[in-house]
Amino acid sequence: MDHDTRRYRRRLQRQGRRKAALACHCLPLALGLGLTGCVQGGGLSPMGESLVAPWRTGDAAERAEALPYASLVATSEGNEALMVMAHRSGDNGRDTYWQAGDRATLHLRDGLPMTSAGFDAALLGQWRDATGDAGRYRLHAHWRDGDGTEHLATANASLECDAPRPLALPLTTLALERCTERLSWQNGGRTVNRLWRDPVSRRIWAGDVTAWPGGQRLRWQVARPWWTDAEDAATSHAGSGETPE
């Protein structure tokens, strides 16, 4: 077992497993949002109905507009889905857990994909290590393919960001930096990812990434953000710029 594998498994043991709340079968998001969406007999309360109704419209942006909760629009494997935040945890709320109407789930850490479920293949973990060189770092990915086999891979990564330009998001338009992440995987493969982030707070508003060598593209855009202006003010000068976070 190599050094990266041992370190990753120790990290898993320390962190434990955090999942979005999926307990209410008639409205999986209800418990994660702290709401009582189900009533006796399997129907919906008025609060539950307010969450389900937007999924009956066809456009993800319209659904996001109709919901007052933090949300993002994600596209993968040819499918587009509105995902609503079901849970937030970790230091300064850095871990967010998202669920679509079909129960596909996505875990973001610092706005970047960390784990996923409900897809043909699943991301089991991803993290970045700084190397000491500005704009360069190592990215580690752990995933399970459609046959159930788990894999680990490491890439040398670089990040370059352009000057802010307007980007149309589901519910607004913002001037964001477009950052290009180039990955050179240990198996010789290469991946180019793109992230759009706020130039001051460095909050990530959108992404178009492949999380592991040969994986499906995952695209997302934040509709309603989960952070506050006060949180942005506290983090606007954090970080060295060496990694996307």
Can you characterise this structure?
The chain is α+β, with helices and mostly antiparallel strands. It has one domain: YmcC-like (YmcC-like fold). The chain is built from 5 helices and 13 strands. Strands 1, 2, 3, 4, 5, 6, 7, 8, 9, 10, 11, 12 and 13 form a 13-stranded antiparallel beta sheet that branches. A hairpin with a 5-residue loop joins strand 6 and strand 7. About 20% of the residues have low confidence. It holds the Pfam family YjbF. It comes from Halomonas heilongjiangensis. InterPro entries: GfcB (IPR021308), YmcC_sf (IPR023373).
- The gyration radius over C-alpha positions equals 18 Å
Number of domains: 1
State the end-to-end CA separation. Answer: 29 Å
CATH superfamily: YmcC-like
Second-tier CATH architecture:
Beta Barrel
- Please tally the helical runs, counting DSSP H or I stretches of 4 or more residues: 5
The share of residues in helices is: 10-25%
> What would the principal axes of the Cα set say about the shape?
globular
Mean pLDDT: 78
Uncertain stretches of 5 or more adjacent residues: 8-56
Number of strands: 13
Per the CATH scheme, the topology name is YmcC-like fold
**Could you say which structural class the secondary elements and strand pairing correspond to?**
alpha+beta
CATH class identity: Mainly Beta
Please write the string of helix (H) and strand (E) elements: HHHHEEEEEEEEEEEEEH
Largest sheet: 13 strands, antiparallel
Note the beta-strand portion: 35-45%
InterPro entries: GfcB (IPR021308), YmcC_sf (IPR023373)
Organism: Halomonas heilongjiangensis
Pfam families: YjbF (PF11102)
Protein name: YjbF family lipoprotein
